Amino acid sequence: MSATEPRTLAEDLRSRSDEQIADLLTARPDLVHPIPSDMRALTTRASTSPSIARFLDDVDVLHHFTLRVACELTASEPTTKKEIVNHVLANLDKKAKRDVESAVRHLWTAALLWGGSDRTHVVTAVRDQVVNAPTPTWPPPHCPAAKTTAADKSRIDAHSGSQARTVISIVEETGDIWRREPGAVLRSGGLSTRALDNLAEHLGAERFEVLASLDIAHSAGLIAVGATDSDLGWMPTEAFEEWRLLPAPRRWAQLVKTWRSRASTTSDKPLVTDEHAFAGTWRSHLLAVLDDTPGACDLSTVMDVIDYRWPRRSGKKRTAMITTTWQEAELLGVVSDGFLTSAGRKVAQGADSASIAKAIAGHLVDEVDTVLVQADHTIVAPGPLDPHIGRRLRDIADVESRGHGYVLRVSKSSIRRALGVDSDPQTRIDFLTEVSSKELPQPVAYAIADAARTSSKVSKDCLAPTPPTPARRPRSIATPATVEKTLRVLRAEEVRELVDARPDASDLPRMDSSAVVASLKYAIDHNETVHLSHAESDGSTAVLLVDPIRLGGGSLTAYDHHDEQVRTLAISRISGVVTIQVSA
Fold first, then answer.
1. Which domain holds residue 177?
2. Which whole-number Å values give the CA distances from 322 to 3, 109, 266, 282, 286, in the listed order?
3. pTM
4. Helix (H, G, I), strand (E, B) or coil at 398
5. In contact, 203 and 174? CB cutoff 8 Å
6. Could you give the number of structural domains in the chain?
7. Which residues, other chains included, contact 401 with Cβ-Cβ below 8 Å and sequence gap of 6+?
8. Of 279, 331, 460, 502, which has the most beta carbons under 10 Å away?
9. Tens digits of per-residue pLDDT, 505-544?
10. Are 239 and 343 members of one domain?
11. Max Cα-Cα span within the chain
12. For residue 466, with 0-12 CB atoms within 10 Å meaning exposed, 13-18 middle and 19 or more buried, which class applies?
């Protein structure tokens, strides 16, 4: 073996340039959170199964298969990068050579492969994670390359605005209904199927539209369970009162931003949040594939691309959740006929609320603040209602039809409902006079005045406190500043020399189990390397040089410097622990 060939992963990393270490940290950002204290700590962390799993979560089938081939070739001795490439190509197409070579370079950069071109090794913890990696299809699945035409863009953006308006209206009207008559809360939580169906019928909307809209509003803190005078019920929150007065583009932006980051998808149970650890990740995968596609792509093809680009955790659960996410995206106006809409693209790219609102603003039908009140007690609105007058109109009249506009009807029951909010009939008459494009018909004014003689007492609105926003830990990234700081720490530590002379077992003091655990906890908290005396299976006592990683279940997980791998040791077999001396 050449004298320049590294014998261990630690030697390999120490021999890398600052630029190569920076590339490693960028490829595996978890390695800098927290910043490793020295190259030993970086080596330990880079070779642990959890860190490797995080990297594998974000690479495609080709990377997984390449690692599987590398593991098979290095089962007994190192191999060469050329052999890895050739064996992978034997299962693919020769045209894939450039992609395979790129994958090998990427895996070496990420320190899953290490060593030189002629003696290439695989990090031990990788082997169990890629043993069943499938052979990639070639060429990889992809969405059609056809670009969106101007006509397509206009059509899908118009549909996007229509869908956005639908969701806004469902949330707004439901909040207004529940402020007067809260939705009944089931003992098991959520809303009953019958209540949901009745609400969907009243709103003239599809069941899934109402179900998904309410789930998103719930996640946004706009509706919640609150207390009435006698019971609990679903009702709008204080945040809903602020939300409904925002301009329509801002209202939609708030809903879609909540959808983008929520940790769940719509289920069959109304207003029952069933969180899943990977819901947000899978939603981002769906949006990333669509954002990379210039034209339309059907759900089946999108699923194939996702399974290729992120093969880990593929299966029925992910397929089901992404299918539901696709339906939600269509409902919100993020996706239309397989196209990512203009506003949807802003959502996919993680834009701020102002940018998202600006993208949808031009595609929303303008709200109206003037209506036509007719003698037959109907009220005609030629467009969506301005939120400042919409609630008051829906208080005094029942919605009969929806579409590009509204038709409402004033009835005895609706007038009594309005007077239950404000008992002064003249206030209602003045309001209708103000918003009507023509003189208020006398029959309508008379009906309001007549109903006031027998109206019931005024009842207050039901409002729930705004629930706290759950804290979400952002995805780890390696910023240039963090990478630069890490490099300074690592290079400063290179002047240290690790005293690696194995002491005799008799040199380590014997400790009881509580002292062993306390010493190991201290070493973990302070990122220290220790010598420990360990009873081997053959009855002998060995002195190991390790970096403790974690304690749990009566065992220690640690990186063994002599074996260059992570081991699990029974704490009951450890009789002594000593921190090694490091000289600057």
1. 150-361
2. 52, 32, 11, 7, 7
3. 0.79
4. strand
5. yes
6. 4
7. 204, 407
8. 331
9. 677 788 888 889 988 988 887 667 788 899 887 777 888 8
10. yes
11. 106
12. middle
